[in-house]
Amino acid sequence: MSAGKLPRTLRLDPSDTFVFARAAEAGEWAVTGSFLFFDTDLSALAGKERAAFRSGFVGVRSLGFSTLVVVSEASDAEREAAIEDLARHIHERFGAPDREAACAAAREEIEVAASLCNLPVGSVVAMHRSAQDGEIAEEFRTLHQRAPGADPMHGRAFHFVETDEDGPDEQADLVGLLSDASAGAERA
Question: Per its UniProt record, what InterPro entries does this chain match (predicted)?
Answer without folding.
Answer: DUF6505
